[in-house]
Design goal:
With 196 residues, this protein is α/β, with parallel strands linked by helices. Helix content is 29%, strand content 23%. It has a single domain, classed as Maf protein, CATH 3.90.950. It contains five helices and seven strands; from the N terminus they run βαβαβαββββαα. Strands 2-1-3-4-5-6-7 form a seven-stranded mixed beta sheet. Strand 6 and strand 7 form a beta hairpin. It catalyses: dITP + H2O = dIMP + diphosphate + H(+); ITP + H2O = IMP + diphosphate + H(+); XTP + H2O = XMP + diphosphate + H(+).
Length: 196
């Protein structure tokens, strides 16, 4: 059983979420062991998550967990996709990325603004693990024409959820943590980890 998992991130929110959903396991941020970030050269969310997890496992000798996620917009052929965090350029912040998205969607009519958040979360037992555990999650919504709400991060202020009649930025953290793409991917992984 993997009692200690290295999270290929230093995000405190992710650590808290994983710790709550993985009772009995010690989830440690990679910053406890090393400071360098993996170079994400993959062409998909799954590939990038695996790159990060394998890098963390190789640096620590411990099992590792990583995720890669982003926004896919149907009218933009899946953009920004794996480039969601740097859509407006390397070093861009959330606001710059969000407004680049709105600019790209300026002429997309209402009714054709479907999008989804996607998350791939993986666990590797060691750096060369040939059978990594993979959990996937997808959260469907639509892109608004202007931001609404102050919660969340990334594209949340323009990601409208018809089921709740609000944006992800207006949704309570409790509801978001139960239904988001990341929550879905993590639940799929937890099911697999329970038999490990």
């Amino acid at each position: 059983m993997m009692s200690t998992l290295v999270l290929a991130s230093n995000n405190a929110g992710k650590i808290a979420e994983l710790t709550a959903l993985l009772p009995g396991r010690d989830v440690r941020p990679q910053g406890d062991y090393f400071s360098e970030e993996a170079v994400e050269t993959g062409h998909s969310f799954i590939e990038n998550a695996l790159i990060k997890a394998r890098y963390a496992a190789s640096r620590t000798g411990l099992p590792a967990i990583a995720d890669d996620s982003g926004l896919e917009v149907t009218a933009l052929n899946g953009e920004p996709g794996i480039f969601s965090a740097r859509y407006a350029g390397r070093g861009a912040n959330d606001t710059q990325n969000l407004y680049k998205l709105l600019e790209m969607m300026h002429d997309v009519p209402d009714g054709e603004r479907q999008a989804s958040y996607f998350c791939a979360m993986v666990v590797v037992r060691h750096a060369q693990d040939p059978t990594p555990l993979i959990g996937l999650g997808r959260w469907h919504g639509e892109i608004l024409r202007r931001p609404e709400g102050t919660g969340g991060f990334g594209y949340d202020p323009v990601f409208y959820l018809p089921k709740w009649q609000c944006t992800a930025a207006q949704l309570s953290a409790e509801v978001k943590n139960q239904h988001s793409h990341r929550a879905q991917a993590l639940k799929a992984l937890v099911t697999q980890l329970s038999v490990e």
